[in-house]
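Please, structure for the following, as tokens.
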Amino acid sequence: MLTLQWYLADPLISLVIALLVASGAWRLIEETSHILMEGAPANIDIAEVRTAMTEAPGVQKVHDLHIWTLTSGVESLCAHVLLRPDCSSRDRKAVPATLVRILQERLKIEHPTIQIEEEQQAQCEGSIHF
């Protein structure tokens, strides 16, 4: 400013810096709000997760599937898994570990919670959720 006598440089540069800070702050507020509202992570395809879980041996259906972000980069999952009627007792015991491995290794979901259901349970439960 002393050499060029251009006194508008200071407010213009300050405005550019303020816009850069505001832009970064806005992105941070959006990401934080999404995490606090337990929104589904943008980097995870829910249909792909459901398909991968359904393809596991012994799994007939996946329902009540919820995926959210615990903190930046740490995803969590909660799901009900209905076993096939013809599922062997050995497969019944292996299904939870198999699903956890698929979710953690292949889909990078670090904290899965899975509830295993059998056909009788699924028929008794209604569609009312609280």
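Residues 9-36 form the longest helix (28 residues). The mean pLDDT is 85.
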